[in-house]
Design brief:
Layout (H helix, E strand, L loop, with lengths): L1 H23 L3 H15 L4 E7 L5 E9 L13 E2 L4 H6 L6 E4 L5 H9 L4 E9 L2 E9 L9 H5 L2 H8 L1
Helix pairs in contact: 1-2, 1-6, 2-6
């Protein structure tokens, strides 16, 4: 019971912090960085990203990156990822909701996704316009709360777009 209450308390704090970033921080860049930081910390991930199409719809590139203490930026390795290469991930996004992939339970296609992002597990949530995926949020190597998609889903389309304004 206490563990469940503590988990809820951590979730509630994270949700509150994410919403405050969307509503009250005037600097869009700072708001998005804060949101990615909250996600990374909540899921105890190595890094978190926002990927968006490059305008030509042939590539996705990271537009935002947060990485935890002791980690280094890998964003430069994530520029201009061909849509064809990301097809297994985009196929998973055709089902509603967020996804969690762990190497120990992954099929061949899911292992390809993990290899692209050089990780052993990930959480991802798509966002888009008019049912078309224009980007996604990714948490790399999450270690906690991997069954809690609520927090990740909060920052899908609306939060990212709010932060850009």
């Amino acid at each position: 019971m206490n563990e469940q209450r503590n988990k809820m308390s951590v979730r509630e704090k994270t949700v509150k912090d994410i919403m405050n970033n969307c509503l009250f921080i005037q600097n869009g860049e700072q708001a998005i960085n804060n949101i990615l930081s909250e996600l990374g910390k909540y899921y105890y991930g190595d890094r978190s990203y926002v990927f968006e199409t490059d305008g030509t719809e042939t590539h996705f590139t990271y537009t935002w990156e947060w990485y935890g203490e002791g980690e280094i930026s890998k964003g430069e390795n994530r520029r201009n990822l061909p849509v064809d290469e990301l097809e297994p991930l985009l196929d998973l996004f055709k089902e509603p909701g967020e996804i969690y992939i762990s190497y120990s339970n992954a099929n061949k296609e899911e292992k390809k996704i993990l290899e692209i992002f050089e990780c052993s597990s990930l959480l991802a949530a798509p966002f888009g316009v008019d049912e078309k995926i224009t980007g996604f949020v990714l948490v790399v190597n999450p270690k906690l709360h991997t069954d809690d998609f609520l927090t990740l889903s909060l920052i899908q389309r609306d939060s990212i777009n709010a932060g850009k304004q």
